[in-house]
Amino acid sequence: MSPKPPKKEEDALLVRKCLDGESEALTTLRRWYNGDLVNILLSRGATPTESDDLLADLWDDCVVGGEDHPSLLEKFSGRCALRNWLATVATRRWIDLRRRRGRHVEPSQVSGNGTVPDILDTVPTLDSKSRDEALGNLLLESLRMAFRSCTPQSLLLLRLVYLHGLTQREVCRMLGWTEARVSRTLSGAMQEIERTTLRYLARRDPLLKLTWADFVELCEAHQTGFL
Amino acid sequence: MKSNMQNAFRTVAGFLDRFEVEVEGRELREPPREVANKLRDFARGKLAQAKQAELVALLHENPHWVSRLADEVKALRPTGA
Question: Could you tell me if A36 and A2 are in contact, meaning their C-beta atoms sit under 8 angstroms apart?
Answer without folding.
Answer: yes
